[in-house]
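Subject: Predicted fold for Orotidine 5'-phosphate decarboxylase, 229 residues

User T.R. writes:
Posting the sequence so we have a shared reference for the thread.
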Amino acid sequence: MSEMLIVALDFPTADQALHFIEPLSPDDCILKVGLQLYVASGPQFVKRLVDSGFKVFLDLKFHDIPNTVAGACQSAADLGVWMMNVHAGGGPVMLDAAAKSLASYEKPPILIAVTVLTSMNQAQLGATGVSTSPEAQVKRLAALTAEQGLDGVVCSAQESAMLREQQGQDFVLVTPGIRPLGSEQGDQQRIMTPQDAKQAGSSYIVVGRPITAATNPLAVIKSINDSLR
Ligand SMILES: O=c1ccn([C@@H]2O[C@H](COP(=O)(O)O)[C@@H](O)[C@H]2O)c(=O)[nH]1
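User M.O. replies:
I've generated the structure tokens; pasting them so everyone works from the same file.
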């Protein structure tokens, strides 16, 4: 039973995603549906995954005016997803609207906010006008997210130990940019191995290409899960 591993289903079609998950059970991993698959296959596909018993993280990173984000959060919650997210950069009023939009649900999804994308380094962050380090910006946005009552953040595992100390044990830390030793870094900048991420205090790790592009994805999932025991 995997409690930490979230697999990113970054596929261009529903058929490819379904083929990939055929040998998997909900005990193997949590499934993440992001922009590519959602745009290609839509809410019905998300519902189908939920109905088949998988925990689903809907990773659409809402970033819009508060009223629009609140409505989008409710539409996502109505699909029965386990976790969903918004961008912390949307600001306190947007974060508050997102959190409040889920208040009437009996069992609301876990709501987290993206801090600084794991594909960004200091230079890329600087190019957006943010002159602090990625760590300082993550710290600031995590504090803002917690103040507005969300459950946690998306950050890199390189910031997990810092945020565990800052926000305590109950704050959810979801960490993409995970690279088992020997796997390709690709476009990720702030990376860590699964074991080191667990050690650093990540609640969940998100792994995409190192699994989906592998010759034997099931073996990689098993090996990651074994390394997390
Ligand atoms: O900061 C972020 C936020 C989200 N992601 C998503 O996680 C996966 C990572 O996939 P890999 O193939 O393991 O790089 C992908 O779906 C991203 O959209 C992220 O990487 N960083």
